[in-house]
Amino acid sequence: MMWQLTEPSYLWILIVLPGAFWFVFRHGQGNGAVYPPTGNLPRLPRSLRHLATDIARIVFLTGIALLMVAMAGPQTRDIRVTERSEAIAIQMVVDVSGSMAGLDFASPETIHATPGSTRLDIAKKSFSEFVRRRPHDAIGLITFGGYAVSRVPLTFDHELLQRMIDDVHIPGSEYDHAGYLRRPEEQMTAIGDALALACARLENTEIVSRIVVFLSDGESNFGIVEPDDAIQLAKSMGIRVYTIAVGSDDKVPFLQHQPDGRTVILRMFVGLDTDLLQRIADTKGGRYFHADDAEGLEQAMAAIDAMETTVTEKQVVEHRAEKLHWPLTLGLLLLIGSISVRCGLDGRLI
After folding, report:
1. pLDDT greater than 60 at residue 66
2. In CATH, which superfamily holds the domain spanning 88-309?
């Protein structure tokens, strides 16, 4: 809130007030005969009548000053800025199959340090940064291996979403007594199921612009929904899909813990169906990216962020309130009071 004057030129009249004070008090001095020097005579105390007269003059001139301030038109101005955002509904889909434990995105210095070095660790950092740059959008999270799981529905609560991203991990590999995986389907890749679930989560939103950011490093080898059926579903719903293929053509290093407690690096090929991810992106004006290192993944996420801009409008609301009634009312009261006192004392106005 700001104070301002609509007619500040009226304040120039206040310049004459010092002269008015001098005139009033000078004019109020009584006439008398000239006597010899009276410095040695005792001073008589001022009477209440004289004191009341002086106060009445001061109050009168103060009332005049307040009237001048009222004529200047004091008012308050309250400016409020409101923002209206046309949000985008974004469903992030992240592969958490066993191949996301690959260490090909790690630097040679950190390849033996498991925390923060896997493909999934790098992907989580990129997705977290992407969320941080989209404060006005509704964003959801789906993870998939052999099964697609909706971790977070579309939400504007990005603090909750960030916590859930941090909690994403690759399902543990548990073996039976014969050395076989207890739940091998968790290490598989159900691309069709994941895309279909992302479309389902975007179906009932009232937000017009809807996109999917789909990250995978494998081949579709499991699931109920065929990838082509999921592609047709996304196309029929008008959903743009941005796909990111993660991984390189070389053998991928993996960290493996031996029964004797040793940790070794194994290298193996990981299948990557780039053609399928390309077809998914081509359905409704999306785009395909291939990231074979951490920098490439960052560039892909930055490109998606730049292409999907959120429209934000600012509306300025200005409210003005006149405040002249305060100095006007007080000034009139002071004038009336001072004139009444002077008239009651000696019949004068000032």
Report:
1. yes
2. von Willebrand factor, type A domain (3.40.50.410)
